[in-house]
Design goal:
Distance between the termini: 21 Å
Helix content: 25-40%
Bound molecules: iron/sulfur cluster
Number of domains: 1
Largest sheet: 2 strands, antiparallel
Number of helices: 6
Radius of gyration: 16 Å
Length: 141
């Protein structure tokens, strides 16, 4: 298994990814969508609501931590099925913004291939260099 601290990870030649806006990652299997306090503030400002209202209407808990909630059909509460768009796209959490360059997905080609079966944007379009990917990973620290 490669460590991301290695000088030359398996993705040292870069990886291709361009989101095609299908919205698949915002629907389907239940998951966790974590956010920081700063991100919460930005979302509340964007929605023009208080933190209390945000917590009451949009937040659930996953594995003990606050997470943006989902509808009964598994869609993120902020996913608009009519447009396949995110209602808080400009202020979406880092977790959403940095997909698919997550440490666990970059751990191995198998993990990347697993993610590519769920996301048609993986292995397509723009080539992200090793240094760009490292910078996205640092964003998540
Ligand atoms: S599943 Fe992939 S291609 Fe589709 S919206 Fe999400 S990131 Fe974009």
């Amino acid at each position: 298994m490669n460590s991301l601290a290695e000088l030359s990870p398996w993705w040292s030649e870069g990886l291709r990814f361009s989101c095609i806006g299908c919205g698949r990652c915002c629907r389907g299997e239940p998951g966790a969508i974590y956010f920081t306090e700063g991100e919460e503030e930005k979302i509340c400002d964007h929605l023009k609501i208080s933190k209390e209202r945000f917590r009451a209407e949009y937040v659930t808990h996953r594995w003990g931590d606050p997470s943006i909630g989902e509808k009964a059909n598994g869609e993120c509460l902020f996913y608009d099925p009519a447009t396949a768009r995110c209602a808080i796209y400009q202020v979406r959490p880092t977790q959403c913004r940095t997909w698919p360059f997550w440490e666990d997905i970059l751990e191995s080609p198998d993990q990347w291939a697993w993610a590519s079966r769920r996301c048609p944007g993986i292995d397509e379009g723009r080539l992200w260099t090793e240094s760009e990917i490292r910078s996205i990973l640092e964003d998540q620290l």
